[in-house]
Amino acid sequence: MNISQEFDTIAAISTPLGTGGVGVVRISGDKSFEIAQKISKKENLPAGKICHGWIYNGDKKLDEVIILPFKAPHSYSGEDVIEIQCHGGIHVIQNILDTVLQNGARMAERGEFTKRAFLNKRMDLSQAEAVDDLIHSKTSDFAIYSAKNLSGTLAKTIKELREEIFTVASRIVAGIDFPEDVAEPEYTYLIENFEKEISQIDKILIGAKSSDILRQGIKVAIVGRPNVGKSSLFNALLNINRAIVTDIAGTTRDVIKENIDMGIPVTLIDTAGIRKDESVDKVEEIGIEYSKQSAQEADLILFMYAANEGFTKEDKEIYEIIKDKKHIILANKIDLGGNKYTPQTIEISTVSNKGLEELKSEIKSTVLDMSSEDIEFVTNKRQQTCLIRCRESLDRALKAAQINELQDMIYIDLKSALLALDEITGEVITDDILNNIFDHFCIGK
Ligand SMILES: Nc1nc2c(ncn2[C@@H]2O[C@H](COP(=O)(O)OP(=O)(O)O)[C@@H](O)[C@H]2O)c(=O)[nH]1
Ligand SMILES: [Mg+2]
Fold this sequence. Notes:
With 445 residues, the chain is α/β, with parallel strands linked by helices. The chain folds into three domains: 10-123, Probable tRNA modification gtpase trme, domain 1 (Gyrase A, domain 2, 2-Layer Sandwich); 134-206 and 378-426, Four Helix Bundle (Hemerythrin (Met), subunit A), CATH 1.20.120.430; 224-373, 3-Layer(aba) Sandwich (Rossmann fold). The chain has helices spanning 32-40, 90-102, 112-119, 125-136, 140-150, 153-177, 187-205, 208-216, 230-238, 282-297, 313-322, 356-368, 381-402, 407-425, 431-438; strands at residues 10-13, 20-28, 51-57, 60-70, 81-88, 106-107, 218-223, 256-261, 265-270, 300-306, 327-332, 346-347. The strands form two sheets. Strands 3-4-5-2-1-6 form a six-stranded mixed β-sheet. The protein has a six-stranded mixed β-sheet with strand order 8-9-7-10-11-12, sandwiched between helices. The radius of gyration is 29 Å and the shape is flat. Residues 230-231, 243, 251-252 line the site of magnesium ion.
């Protein structure tokens, strides 16, 4: 592995910079214990024991703290690690960090604790990436998927796949190197194996597009003519009164956005009602223009009409504008009567909350084009690219085996397939790729 390892002692604040009950300063490296003992004026910090005390800068007391000492390799980074839990005020934590730095630690770079954990083989690269996913997950579902990868589910699957390809490759090599003693493997055996491995990759990649949506989220705009209940739905989905609701048409004049967790991260957009008439004043006109834009930008449109008034001519005109985009039709105010415009129309009422749960699951299945229960893994772009490369190599090997190609040639494709998998786990990786991954992390992780 071509990785330059540095083993100086690093430190950073690992909790968000803000006011909170507790703040954590983390130190990792050979000098961690020495520094912690000095600034806590303690002779000894027994590993694995919770220590209570004070942190000092010279004779000044900075804060009353709890110190958690971990001895290598039994720590997050695999090195000697000290975690200082202090009170969660910005300046208290900063004072402690400054003192740690004055006593011989260097400020950690982004993701450096996790990078060391990877370099010290505490986790593979897919697990390290899962740490970042876990921290940045926008929904509780995605956090659960990330935790699964952190626990090594993806890593294990990749390892098993690697083992299978490796076994086949070894048998080919044995046949090539010792033609007198070892028979080269049957082509039917090769074909069977390659087909199986390709379908295993396809299984992982099935969730690839959905992974991106689960990670990044989608924009959903509520569109319709004034007064059909768009802002009411917006509030009902958010569970707060964010948008102003009145029975006067044209109340919502600008575009309001909020993020919500619908299993996928959703940026919900309430738009001003689209309408054409003389009563439209300047401000509202701008709002209507914004709504058309938001409708264009949205990944999904909730097109709403008032069930009790039927699908009017005006509704139809607006519907024409959005109908080519991915959309769901909503018949609101169903509590006042009315029918569905199309069989797929969802009947809702923001007054009785009827249909809201159905709407949420419909949003999810419309954008994921599969049930989220079917997604076994989340993967990121880097992992997907490696998997696709591995699949392409296996596919070439399969085609070669089908025409009884020389096994030396097949072996070359298997080697590139293995290499692609090794990049996922980080078994083979360059400094550049590694830095690129950890540069996205936050400081202190
Ligand atoms: N009966 C009934 N009234 C509703 C429903 N949803 C909204 N409204 C009423 O319709 C009016 C317009 O609602 P609003 O959300 O401001 O519509 P917008 O102009 O499309 O944003 C308000 O008086 C709401 O209370 C519903 O499901 N049932
Ligand atoms: Mg409104």
